[in-house]
Structure formats: C-alpha cells, structure tokens
Predict the structure.
Amino acid sequence: QVRLVESGGGSVQPGGSLTLSCEANGGTFNKCMGWFRQAPGKEREGVAAIKEVRTSNYADSVKGRFTISKDNAKNTLYLQMNSLKPEDTAMYYCAARASVFAGCPAISAPSSAGDFDYWGQGTQVTVSS
C-alpha cells in the first residue's frame, strides 16, 4: 500500500507561483507519478506525469508554466507552478502507479486517471486577485 500526502497549496494572485509537494511512503523510484486537478463543477483532468525526467508529459494548458519533478531520495513528487491563472484554481491531487514496470500514460488523455492506483487527499490551489 502506498500513502500519498500533498502539501503546498494556497491562495496566490494571478501571475504568482506555488510549489506543490507529494510525499509517498511507498517510494517514488522508478514509478510513474502524476498530478491531477478538479475544479468545482468540472471533471478531473490530468496536469502532468513523470517516471523519469525524459518521460514527463504535460497537459497543453500548463505546458511552459508548470514543471513536474521527483526527488527519489526524499520519496517526494513536486509540481512547480509559475504564471498562475485564475483557471488553474482547483483541488490538486497526487497519484501513483503501483508497478515499476508500467510507463506513464499521456496525462491529457481522458482515461489517464484510470491508470493510477493510489491517490492523495488533495491540496487546494486558488488563484485570484
């Protein structure tokens, strides 16, 4: 069993930055991990996923603004969010695949959430002036 705990959410003005963290007690090494978000009244959407640096992928809406990374020594997944917009307001969730043999799905695919086995409780990000 893997337990995921997110932190780092908060309120920020448009154009600001936040860094989300996700601590995984089951480890992050060689596992695909991702970030998803869900705004009120909207469906959950994939934001970014990573197994190794060269295999990370992003939703078009965050490319160039968000960066996903892992620190395997700290068992922690990060999401650096820059140039935040009001439409980035959502609950952000960390997710992990169970198998070290599984790659990452295209995170923007509608079915991508179904590929992840473990989920955190979420951390709220609010972008507002």
Observations:
- The chain is about 0% helix and 40% strand.
